[in-house]
Amino acid sequence: MSPGPGPEKDTDTASSPVPGRMDERLLGAGTGPRFLLLISLFVTSSASMTSAVFHSLVDPRNMASGCALASGLDPRADFLGASLATLRSDEAFRACVDRFVPHASPWPVPAAVVALVLAACVLYWTLPRWKQRGRRLVPVEGIDPHGELGALLDELVDVAGLSRRPRFVVSPAARTASAVVFGRWRHHVVCLHGGLVAIRDSDARRFRAVVLHELAHIHNRDVDITYATVALWRVFLFAVLPGYLVWAVLALRDALSSAVFGPPSLVATSRDVAFTAVLIALVFLTRADILRTRELYADADAIRWGADPAGWGGATGSAASDRGRLGRAARALAAAWRSHPGWDRRRRALADAQELFHSSALTLFLTGATASICAGELYGFGAGWVVRLAAATVAGLIATTVAVNLWRAAARAVLTGVRAPSGLRAGWWLGAGLVLGEVLTGGVSGWRVLPRHPEVFALLVVISVVVTCWTAQFADLALRCWRGSRLRPAFAAGLTATLVAFALTYDWWHSSGRIFAAGWPFSEPAIRAALQHDLPGPALGASTLTVIAVVLSMVLPWEQDPLLWAVTALWVLPLLVWGIGAADKAPAWAVRALPPGEGAVWRAERLPSFRRLAVAAGLGAGGAWLGVVVVLARIHAVRPPVGQPLGQQALLVVAWLFVVLAAVVVAAATVTGSVTPRLPVPAAAVAAGTAGLAGVTAAFLLLSADGCVRSLATMGTTCAWLPGGAWPLTELLLPLVLGLALFVSVFTAVVATAVLRLRRRPRPDVGDRDRRTRLRPARDGGHTRAPARKAAVAAVCLIALTLITAASLPMGTGGHSGAHTSLTRQDLIPAQNTRPAEEVLALQTDAWLRLGGRELLVKMTGEVLHIMTALQDDRAFTDHGYAARAIRPHCLGLRTAAQRLGAYFPVPDPDVARQRPTLATQGRRIGTNCRQAIDEGKRDLYLASMNDVVTLSERLSGVLREVTAEAGHHPGQ
Q1: Which DSSP symbol is given to 173?
Q2: Does the pLDDT at position 458 exceed 80?
Q3: Residue 658 CA to its chain's centroid (Å)
C-alpha cells in the first residue's frame, strides 16, 4: 500500500506539476457497495454450503429424495420436470417429508453462520498481531532520539486530517523505500521500511508521498475494510470450503453406486466443483480490482494533501512486453490478479482523473457475477419475504455500484467535454457477469450442465442493458440541468429509479423468469378453461384463447403495482428534467467539482430540443388514440347479439387494446431513439410513456362513454357515462402498457440506437473546444421557462400519477377491482405426459410403496376383507343390527383409508393410473353409500354398495400386484 520504490534522481517529467483535476470524490468512489457484495458472497455461500452438509447429516438415509421419487421425480429429467413432479403433489410431498425426514431445528445453519462471522471477527482482531510476528519491528521513538522524525510524522498526520494518530514502527531489515499500513479499527500501525527512513533527508518529497499515501488508506478506512474481508475469506477458505468439498465427494461416491442417480449426480457434483473453483477466482479478482481502485484513490488523496507527483516515479514498463496482442493480453491478465495497479496506470491516474472515473469491463463483469452467485444462493433457501428482502438488498448493491460509476463518468463528461457513456457497454458486461453466475449456481439447470433453453439467459443482458443505458443517459441529462450546489439530491432521484427498476425485474427473474429457461411451466388448457368458466358468453376461438393464455402466463408473475411505478419513473423523471431545461451557466456543484482558472470548463452543449421531443410524443399519442378507435370499431363489428353475456367480449377488448397500444409504444420508442442523436434512451422513454398514457386514457374515456358512439360501442347499447364499468378494463391495461410494454420499448430503442451508432464513426474521446465555455457561477434569475412547456409537462405528469395512484389503491377505494378467478396454483401445473425409463419407474414405484402406498393399499384391502367376511353371514342381508355392528365400522374405515390414499401420491406408473379407476374416489363413495344405507335403511343402496365392495376388492388386488411387480423390476431390489 505505498507508491513503492522509484528512481533516486528526479526527471523533468516526474517533476512537472499535475494539471487541474476534478474532485475525484464526486459522488464517492463506488467501492463500498462492492465490498459489501463481497462480504455478502462470503456469508451466503457459507450458509448454503453449511446447509447442504447439515441436512445430509440430519437425513442420512436421504428420505427427502425418496419422497421426491414417490411423487414422480425422474432424476434423469431436467430441472422443470423435477420441480413440477413435487409441485403436482405438493401437500402429499410435504406430508411425506414431515413424516419420514427427521425434524431439524431451523437454527443450526444461522447459528453456524453467526459462529463463522464471530470467528472472522476474532481473526480480524488478531491479524495485526500475527502480521507483526517475527518481523522485528522497532518503534519510531527507538531510532529517533531527537524527535525529528516523530515531529515530521505528526505534521503529516495533521495534514491528512486524522483524528487519531496511528502507531509508527520501522522495519530495519526492509531495504525498499516503501511502507505498509495494517491494524484494526482505531488501532492502526504504519510500518516504515528502513530504505524509506534512510532517504528521509535526501529525498524528502518521496518520503512525504509514501507516508501520505499510507495515511490516506487510514483516512479512507481501506485498512478496516480490507482486513475484514481477509478475515471472512480465510474463515470461509479453511473452515467451510474443505468440509463442503469432502461432503460433495462422499455424496458423489454414494450416488455413483446407483445406475439411475449416478450420471446426474456426476454432472451436478462436477458443476459444484467448478463453481467452487470459479468462486475462489472471482473472490481473488474482485478483491484485487477493489484494492487497485483504492490504491489510486490513496494516490489522489496524497496529491491533494500536497505530495509531489515525483514520488510516483516507478519503473517504466518494457516496450517488449507490449508487442503484439498476445503480449498485451498476457500483461492485462497478470495485472488483473495484482492488488496494486501498475506504474503506468498510476501515473496516468495522477496526470488525468479519467482512470478514477472509468469503470473497466472487468469491474462490471465481476460485479455481475458476484451478485448473481450471491442472489442464487439466497433464493436456494426459498422464496419467503426474508429471502426476497435480502435478494433485493443484493440487487440494490448492484444498482448502486453501477449507478455511482455511470453518474461519475457522466459528470466527468459534462465537466471536461469528453464523450459521455451510453451505458451499453456497462450493461453488456454486467449482464454477462449475471449470466455466468446463473450458469454456475445451476438454479434452473438441475442435473444438466445447461438448462434446456439457455437462450432465455439473454433476458438478464436485456434487463442490464435497459437499466444501465437509461441510468447513464439520464445522468447526462440531469447533470446538465441540475442547478443545486450539491449533486446528492439529483443522484438520489436517479438512483431510486435505477434501484427499483433493477430490483423488481431481477426479483421477477429469480421468482418466475428463469423458469422459462427450463421449459414452459404453465398449463395452457387450464388457463383456457378458467377463462371460459370465469367469463361467460360466446366463446372465442381456440387459437385466440391460447394466445391470451400464453400472454397471461408470462404477465401474471410480475408484481404489477411496483413495476408500474418503477417503469413510470423511467419516463416521468426525464420529462420533468427536460421541462426544467439545461443550465446555461455553470451551477454551483460544477464550480465546486473543478477548480476554476486551471483549464476547468463547463460544456454548454444544448440538449435535444423539447419541441422536437413534444412532436414525437404528440405523434405517438395520436397514434395511440387512433389505435384505440380502430380496435373498438373492429370489435363492434363482431359484437354478440344483445342480451348475451359479454365476459369473453371484454377479454377480447383488453387483449386487442394491449396488442395495439404495445405496438404503438414500441414504435414510438424505436423511431424517437433512432432520430435523436443525443440522449436517445430518455427521449424514447418519454415519447413511449406519453403515447402509452394517451392510449390508456383514450381507452378509459371511450369505454366510459360506451354506446354514445354507435360505431365504437363494444358492450354498451345506450349512451351513458359509466367510468365504474370501464375502470376494471383500464386497470388491467395500465401495468401491461405502461409497465411491461414500456420496459420492452426502452430496450428496442437501445437496440435501434446501437445499430445506428455502429454505422457511424465514433467521435474521439477528446474535448470539444468549440462547445466549451469557461466555468462561471450560476446567476439567479435566468431566463424564464416557457409557460406552455411547463404546463404541458405538468399536465402529462398529473394524468400519469392520477391513473397509477388510482390503480395502486386498495380494493374498495377506487383501486383494484378485486376480480376473482377459479384458477388455482395446481391448475397451472401441466400434466405429466411422458413415461420414465423402466429402471426409474421401478425406483419411483418402490419408493411409493415403501413410504405409504403399500400401507394404504393394505389398509383398504383389510377393510374390504372385513366387509366381505361379514357378508358370509346371512344376517348381513336380514338383520339391520348385525349390519350396523359388523359392517358399518369397516365402511367408515374404508372411507377413511380411501381419503388417506387420495391425499397420497398417485401411482407412479401412468399406465396403471389410466387403466384402473381411481381407487380413492371409489373407496370414498362405497364407504359413504354403505354408511348412509345402513343408517337410513336403504336396502337398494346397501346391496349396490356391497356389490361395489366386491369389485373394489378385485381392483385393489390387481393394483397391488402390478405396482409390486413394477417395483421388483429394478435390479437393486
Answers
A1: T
A2: yes
A3: 27
Over 80: is that where the pLDDT of 181 sits? yes
For the beta carbon of residue 782, count every other beta carbon within 10 angstroms: 12
Helix (H) or strand (E) holding 138: strand 138-139
Using left for φ > 0, alpha for ψ between -120 and 50, and beta otherwise, residue 723 falls in alpha
C-alpha cell at 190: 504504519
- Among 191, 350, 216, smallest CA distance to 294 is for 216
CA angle 373, 375, 378 (to 5 degrees): 110
* AA letter at 171: S
Strand residues in 570-701 grouped as ranges (E): 601-603
Residue 908 — left, alpha, or beta (φ > 0 → left; ψ -120 to 50 → alpha)? Answer: alpha
- Grid coordinates given for 555: 404477465
User: Taken in order 451, 452, 456, 461, is the CA torsion positive or negative?
Assistant: positive
Q: Which of 685, 675, 691 is nearest to 617 (CA)?
A: 691
Residue of 826, 827, 845 lying closest to 73 (CA atoms): 845
Q: What is the DSSP letter of 375?
A: H
3-class secondary-structure state, position 72? coil
CB atoms within 10 A of CB 68: 22
Q: What is the DSSP string of 676-689?
A: -SSSHHHHHHHHHH
Question: What's the N-to-C CA distance of the chain in angstroms?
Answer: 65
Confidence of residue 12 (pLDDT cuts 50, 70, 90): very low
Look up cell 446528492; give the residue: 488
Predicted confidence (pLDDT) per residue in 769-779, tens digit: 434 444 444 44
The residue type at 548: I
**Number of helices followed by number of strands (H, E) in the chain:** 37, 6
- The residues with which 193 forms a beta bridge, in sequence order, are 171
Q: Average pLDDT in the 713-732 region? A: 80
DSSP character string of 488-539: HHHHHHHHHHHHHHHHHHHHHHHHTGGGGGT---S-HHHHHHHHHHHS-SSP
Distances, alpha carbon 250 to alpha carbons 57, 253, 254, 460, in Å: 12, 5, 6, 35
Contacts made by residues 83-90, CB under 8 angstroms, sequence distance 24+: 83/518, 84/521, 84/829, 84/830, 84/832, 85/832, 87/826, 87/829, 88/826, 88/829, 88/832, 89/905, 89/906, 90/826
Contact 822, 533 (CB under 8 A): yes
SS3 436: helix
Q: Please spell the DSSP secondary structure of 918-964, one letter per residue.
A: -HHHHHHHHHHHHHHHHHHT-HHHHHHHHHHHHHHHHHHHHHHHHHH
DSSP alpha helix (H) spans, 705-835: 723-735, 742-758, 787-808, 825-828
How far apart are the C-alpha atoms of 87 and 93, rounded to whole Å?
8
Provide the 8-state DSSP code for 180: E
Strand 179-184 and strand 167-171: pairing? unpaired
Rounded to an integer, what distance in angstroms lies between the CA atom of residue 38 and that of residue 144?
A: 42
Count, residues in the chain = 973
Q: What is the mean predicted confidence (pLDDT) over 504-528?
A: 76
CB atoms within 10 A of CB 354: 15
Exposed, middle or buried: residue 894 (CB in 10 Å: 0-12, 13-18, 19+)? buried
Give residue 11's pLDDT: 31
Residue range 883-906: mean pLDDT, rounded: 90
Q: 279: part of which helix (H) or strand (E)? A: helix 262-304
CA distance 734 to 807: 8
Q: What are phi and psi of 749, to 5 degrees?
A: -65, -40
Q: CB pairs under 8 A, 24+ apart, for 109-116?
A: 109/47, 109/50, 109/51, 109/54, 110/47, 112/46, 112/47, 112/50, 112/54, 113/43, 113/46, 113/47, 113/50, 116/46, 116/50, 116/235, 116/236, 116/239, 116/240
Distance CA 562, CA 568 (A): 10
Give me the residues paired with residue 170 across strands.
138, 192
CA–CA separation, 48 vs 306, rounded Å?
A: 49
Chain centroid offset of residue 325 CA: 36
